[in-house]
Design a protein that fits this description.
alpha/beta, Rossmann fold, Pantoate--beta-alanine Ligase, Chain: A,domain 2, 2 domains, 10 helices, 9 strands
Length: about 280
């Protein structure tokens, strides 16, 4: 384990640090995060290390992707714990800007993505979200100039939006999706899981179990509508209020009615107590 972990907080400092990392022509991978790191994030850092010689992790809770009614002020933050974890993984550089460094006074430009950002999933319930994500992620790509960027598949629509954005804007970075990391009972790892009460945490794995069962039914030849109906009943029965539960084309996120129509991804967002959870699996 290295005791040296560079943390930079200004764009000028970041560019100098990345220039030093690239002094010997070495490749760089970026792992964008909002901090409150858990094993899911750390799996992304480990994958980044396999893809590139140098690893940069960004930690920035992006206000542009939170609506006024959402949890920006209370979103979990623990930079000291995050840095301890990243140091153990021999991370080369942490980019931890302030809000004013990322969005200086007078900032007035945004990126408004289309395509998978208008699939009728997260965008229906959080219409502000992908504009905020696309703006900050495009800035991160330009600031760091990484060869690779690693994103988790748990935020599947986000992964597709970022991939499309990078392609459309000719950004010279390869987007790599990493499998969702789960707790032993199947719950997808998320920084927001800390919001769950003990009873809600006990009920939460029903979300993944319902997806698994629906995927198995579809693979066995049952109609998609039948499989999703059973999954909805199971999720609601566990105490959730469903925002959406959909079968979509795994690449375009367009609606899909039958297995023959293409690779399928099941995606769900549901609320239990004050916590909103999302998950997805392939069929």
């Amino acid at each position: 384990m290295s005791d040296q972990l560079s943390v930079v907080r200004t764009v000028a400092g970041l560019r100098k640090a990345v220039e030093r990392l690239r002094a010997k022509g070495e490749s760089v991978a970026l792992v964008p995060t909002m901090g409150a790191l858990h094993d899911g994030h750390l799996s992304l850092v480990r994958l980044a290390r396999k893809k590139a010689r140098r690893v940069v992790v960004s930690i920035f809770v992006n206000p542009a992707q939170f609506a006024p009614s959402e949890d920006f002020a209370t979103y979990p933050r623990n930079i000291r714990a995050d840095l301890r974890l990243l140091r153990k993984l021999n991370t080369d550089l942490v980019w931890a800007p302030s809000t004013s460094a990322m969005y200086p006074e007078g900032f007035s430009t945004s990126v408004q993505p289309g395509g998978p950002a208008h699939a009728g999933l997260e965008d229906t319930y959080r219409p502000h979200f992908f504009g905020g994500v696309a703006t900050v992620v495009s800035k991160l790509f330009i600031q760091v100039g990484a060869d690779f960027a690693i994103f988790g598949e748990k935020d599947y629509q986000q992964l597709k939006v970022v991939t499309r954005m990078a392609r459309d804007l000719d950004l010279p970075v390869k987007i790599i999706g990493a499998p969702t990391m789960r707790e032993p009972d199947g719950l997808a790892m998320s920084s927001r899981n800390v919001y769950l009460s003990a009873s809600e945490r006990a009920a939460a794995p029903a979300l993944y179990r319902a997806l698994k069962d629906a995927a198995a039914q579809i693979k066995a030849g049952k109609p998609i509508s039948t499989a999703l109906f059973s999954a909805r009943e199971r999720i609601v029965g566990a105490g959730f209020a469903i925002d959406y539960l959909e079968a979509r084309h795994a690449e375009t996120l367009g609606p899909i009615n039958a297995r023959k129509d293409g690779p399928i991804r099941l995606l769900v967002a549901a609320r239990i107590g004050r916590t909103r959870l999302i998950d997805n699996i392939g069929v």
